[in-house]
C-alpha cells in the first residue's frame, strides 16, 4: 500500500482522481490539499469537500495557495470546468468540514511525522508543494516520488508551448523539477490518449451506485466543453492517469528523460523541455509518460467505481 497526499484543483478529472485514490486498496490516501487552478481556491476547495462527502471519503481536506508564487494573476480554466469548477453534478448541502491547517503546513507536518516516505500526487499547479519545499527543505528527503499531471514534450494547450498546470505557476514547477525528487510526468502527450468517449460513459453508467452516477454526471459536462474548445469526441481524462499508474504501472509506458521548466521566455513560459533523445547528456530526472494501455486504464477506472458498491 502506497501512502500518498493528493494535491489538486478540482476540476472534473481531479474529481475522478479523488474517486479512484479514495477507494483502491493499494493506496492509502493521507489527505487532500487544494490549490487554485481549474477555478479559484474557494471553489476548488468546495469541490474537493463535495466529492469526499458524496463518496464518504474520510480524509482531511486542506485549503492551500490562492495565487502563484511569483505572478500576480491566477490562471483558471472556466471554459472547460464551468463557473463552479465542477459543473454537472448536483451535490447535497455541504457538511464536511475543512481541515483548519493550511495545505502547505499539512504537507510539511505529514512528511515530517511519517516514519516512511510518502508519494506526492499533484494534479494541479505545483504551488503548494513548491512552497512546502521552500519553507522546509528537510521534508524533500521524505518524499518517495512525485507523480504529476502536467507538461508536454510536444504541444501545449493554453499556449502552443505550455500545458495549463505548469503554465499556471511555472516558477513553482521550476522548484519541484529542481528538487531532486524522482518525478513521473503525465503530460498531455499521454493524457490525450485517455479520451472518454460516449461508449466509456455508457459503460461506467451501467455499473450503478453513487460513484457510477458521479462519473456520468462529471463526464457529461466535461466531454461537452472539451469538444467545444478542442474538438475532442471524448474528453481526455488527464488526472486519473496518475492514480492508474499508482495502481498498475504497467498501464503506462514511460521514458527516462532530463526535464526542465522554462520560466524566462515570453512566448514559451511554462514549457516543459523534455530531452527525449538525450542530446544534452544530462542525467535523467524524470520518467515521462509516452504510451497508455487504453484497455488497462479503463479497466482500472471501472474497478475503482465498482469498489464503491461493495
TrEMBL record:
<dbReference type="InterPro" id="IPR015910">
    <property type="entry name" value="I/U_nuclsd_hydro_CS"/>
</dbReference>
<keyword id="KW-0326">Glycosidase</keyword>
<feature type="domain" description="Inosine/uridine-preferring nucleoside hydrolase">
    <location>
        <begin position="4"/>
        <end position="299"/>
    </location>
</feature>
<dbReference type="InterPro" id="IPR023186">
    <property type="entry name" value="IUNH"/>
</dbReference>
<protein>
    <submittedName>
        <fullName>Ribonucleoside hydrolase</fullName>
    </submittedName>
</protein>
<dbReference type="Pfam" id="PF01156">
    <property type="entry name" value="IU_nuc_hydro"/>
</dbReference>
<dbReference type="InterPro" id="IPR036452">
    <property type="entry name" value="Ribo_hydro-like"/>
</dbReference>
<keyword id="KW-0378">Hydrolase</keyword>
<dbReference type="InterPro" id="IPR001910">
    <property type="entry name" value="Inosine/uridine_hydrolase_dom"/>
</dbReference>
<dbReference type="GO" id="GO:0016787">
    <property type="term" value="F:hydrolase activity"/>
</dbReference>
Amino acid at each position: 500500500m502506497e501512502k500518498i497526499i493528493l494535491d489538486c484543483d478540482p476540476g472534473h478529472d481531479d474529481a475522478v482522481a479523488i474517486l479512484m485514490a479514495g477507494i483502491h486498496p493499494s493506496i492509502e490516501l493521507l489527505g487532500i490539499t487544494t490549490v487554485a487552478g481549474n477555478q479559484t481556491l474557494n471553489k476548488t476547495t468546495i469541490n474537493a469537500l463535495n466529492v469526499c462527502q458524496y463518496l464518504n471519503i474520510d480524509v482531511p481536506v486542506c485549503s492551500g495557495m490562492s495565487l502563484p508564487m511569483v505572478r500576480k494573476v491566477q490562471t483558471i480554466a472556466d471554459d472547460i470546468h464551468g463557473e463552479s469548477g465542477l459543473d454537472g453534478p448536483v451535490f447535497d448541502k455541504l457538511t464536511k468540514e475543512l481541515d483548519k491547517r493550511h495545505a502547505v503546513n499539512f504537507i510539511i507536518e505529514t512528511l515530517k511525522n511519517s516514519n516512511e516516505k510518502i508519494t506526492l500526487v499533484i494534479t494541479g499547479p505545483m504551488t503548494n508543494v513548491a512552497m512546502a519545499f521552500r519553507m522546509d527543505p528537510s521534508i524533500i528527503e521524505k518524499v518517495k516520488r512525485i507523480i504529476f499531471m502536467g507538461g508536454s514534450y510536444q504541444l501545449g494547450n493554453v499556449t502552443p508551448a505550455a500545458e495549463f498546470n505548469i503554465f499556471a505557476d511555472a516558477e513553482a514547477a521550476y522548484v519541484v523539477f529542481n528538487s531532486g525528487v524522482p518525478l513521473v510526468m503525465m503530460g498531455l502527450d499521454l493524457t490525450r490518449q485517455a479520451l472518454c468517449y460516449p461508449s466509456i460513459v455508457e459503460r461506467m453508467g451501467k455499473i450503478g451506485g453513487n460513484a457510477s452516477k458521479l462519473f456520468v454526471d462529471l463526464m457529461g459536462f466535461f466531454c461537452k466543453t472539451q469538444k467545444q474548445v478542442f474538438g475532442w469526441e471524448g474528453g481526455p481524462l488527464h488526472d486519473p492517469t496518475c492514480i492508474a499508474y499508482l495502481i498498475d504501472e504497467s498501464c503506462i509506458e514511460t521514458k527516462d528523460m532530463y526535464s526542465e521548466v522554462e520560466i524566462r521566455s515570453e512566448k514559451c513560459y511554462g514549457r516543459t523541455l523534455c530531452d527525449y533523445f538525450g542530446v544534452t547528456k544530462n542525467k535523467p530526472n524524470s520518467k515521462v509518460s509516452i504510451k497508455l494501455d487504453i484497455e488497462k486504464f479503463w479497466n482500472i477506472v471501472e474497478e475503482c467505481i465498482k469498489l464503491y458498491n461493495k
